[in-house]
Amino acid sequence: MKELRHVNKYFRKYWKKLFIGTLITIIARVFQLVMPSYVSNIIEVVEKYGQGLIAKGPAQQDLLLYIGIIFGAALLSGLFTFLMRQTIINVSRYIEFDLKNEVFDHYQKLDLNFYKSNRTGDLMNRISEDVSQVRMYAGPALMYGIQTVTLFVCLIPLMFIKAPTMAFYALLPLPVLSVLIYWISRVIHKRSTRVQAFLSNLSTFAQESFSGISVIKAYVMESQTNAQASDLAQEGRDKSMDLAKVNAWFFPMMILLIGVSNIFVIYVGGMQYFRGEISSLGTILEFIIYVNMLTWPVAIVGWLTSIVQRAEASQKRINEFLKQKPEIESPEQPEPLEIEGGVVFDQVSFVYPDTGIKALDNVSFEVAPGETLTILGKTGSGKSTLLDLIARLYDTSTGEIRIDGVPITNLDLEALRAAIGAVPQDAFLFSDTIENNIRFGKEDAHFDEIQAVARQAVVHDNIAGFAKEYQTVLGERGITLSGGQKQRISIARALIKDPVIYLFDDCLSAVDTETEEAILGNLRQASRNKTTIIVSHRVSSALHADKVIVLENGRIIQRGNHEKLMAEDGYYKDLYINQLSGKES
Ligand SMILES: Nc1ncnc2c1ncn2[C@@H]1O[C@H](COP(=O)(O)OP(=O)(O)OP(=O)(O)O)[C@@H](O)[C@H]1O
């Protein structure tokens, strides 16, 4: 129960509803208890009538009265049972909602390393399956728990008051039933944990096969993927069958033990009746009803234990993630700063913690507010890493990055990221309309602004060509854009944000050179007074830059501007000559 303590805060939050729910549960059970003793009364009236102790008229009147009471009590018990579900089960849904939001909010705060070391399927499983298991504890388990306790507390003393010997024998098999069901539930729990872990794998496999469907098709891997899927399905079937086998024991065991209890009641009650220790056969019937009323709650003790165990295991998995602290956080007292956009790298090195790859090695440079820096270099030379460090997606291993003279770690994280408009290398667009994808950069943007930035990113004409123009839905629910169109929408999204610092990570790689030139021209206009850092493989992005650096294996091997770099032999000049000759030819 240690892990489940996490849910107590939600119980406290909804304590009023839970309190009312508990009262209602108790009332519902008390009304349920009315029926057996009136059934006994009915039998007694019938017996008396048979023995000629009561006339037909009054006997009929008594019968009608008792039936009326049983009916009324059943109605009220039904009504309160309905209200009980409405309160306690509803609270469990609220708790499920709150917990899902808490987990999701926490996921959002965690940094990239967390996402790299955990699989998406697992993240999704914890927020859906595991939270559902915890809901079972916060709702049904709580409700049936209260119900069981109420019934035990009211019914068992009542049975002992009415007929102690019969009560003793009637209750004798029930602890055995509870222990057996507890034991079965433990096995069920073990096996269902295996099923749970398997489902996590299955989600990951399905998610990867669907997102990688084009690769699967292109490499004609359908049959291998199918074979893998059917292996997984077989594994799932075996695990589910294991679970089904133990589940199958549950009800037969219950029925057997109720049967034994009933036989005890009939035998012991019958003997007592013969000996005159009980006055009416109605008492036997009353006890049979009691035994049947108790069976489910007794069985449920075992079931509840298994729900609690499962919820504990699930909450443990959830807590594992909730306990993870984001490695990158805002300082407690950030320096107040109106960011102007001066960026300084002071002997910065960075090693990816998971792979140990040194992506940047002693990198130093300065970009003044409003300047443009272009970073060139072979693939894997550390260009994207450098941009990620400016947005503080990672923290430097050694050295310092300063924005307007203030170490980046002293700045408020949100303020820093709000000042940055980043266009990543892999343009990611959401399954939403084009308008909303661009609006992501500025929620309250007017439609005219959206069109204006789309024009600057040279994608407006493409959008206008779609039947639904800006309302065209992208992604899984809609059309698929070309790589270049995606990149340009992603640029428009950054432009509408109108940030102080632009980070463009090779975001024109999928557009033709003519469009690239048009966009670069527009970007120069849009980012005239903004600090702009462009990562590129094309020298065209460097022609008008104030500064250029060339990276190789994480080190700066050349720096200057176009004119200076053309004056020396090296990577830049070679690249320029290569790309220029390519263009001319
Ligand atoms: N998330 C990551 N985890 C571990 N290592 C990484 C990660 N991202 C990049 N690397 C490694 O860091 C080095 C620099 O990568 P980076 O993406 O910064 O290069 P790049 O110059 O942007 O390459 P490209 O031009 O291909 O985009 C590479 O060796 C790469 O394998």
Automatic annotation (TrEMBL):
Organism expressing this protein natively: Robiginitalea myxolifaciens
InterPro entries named among the record's database cross-references: AAA+_ATPase, ABC1_TM_dom, ABC1_TM_sf, ABC_transporter-like_ATP-bd, ABC_transporter-like_CS, P-loop_NTPase, Type_1_exporter
Limits of the ABC transporter domain: 343-578
GO annotations of cellular component type: plasma membrane
A Pfam family of this chain: ABC_membrane
PANTHER family attached to this UniProt entry: ATP-BINDING CASSETTE SUB-FAMILY B MEMBER 10, MITOCHONDRIAL (PTHR43394:SF1), ATP-DEPENDENT PERMEASE MDL1, MITOCHONDRIAL (PTHR43394)
Subcellular location field: Cell membrane
Positions in coiled-coil regions: none
Protein name in UniProt: ATP-binding cassette, subfamily B
MF terms (GO), sorted A to Z: ABC-type oligopeptide transporter activity; ATP binding; ATP hydrolysis activity
Gene3D superfamilies in alphabetical order: ABC transporter type 1, transmembrane domain (1.20.1560.10), P-loop containing nucleotide triphosphate hydrolases (3.40.50.300)
Main location (coarse class): membrane
Residue span(s) of domain ABC transmembrane type-1: 19-310
Membrane topology, record value: Multi-pass membrane protein
Keywords per UniProt: ATP-binding, Cell membrane, Membrane, Nucleotide-binding, Transmembrane, Transmembrane helix, Transport
Transmembrane segments: 20-43, 63-83, 141-160, 166-184, 246-267, 287-308
Organism phylogeny: Bacteria, Pseudomonadati, Bacteroidota, Flavobacteriia, Flavobacteriales
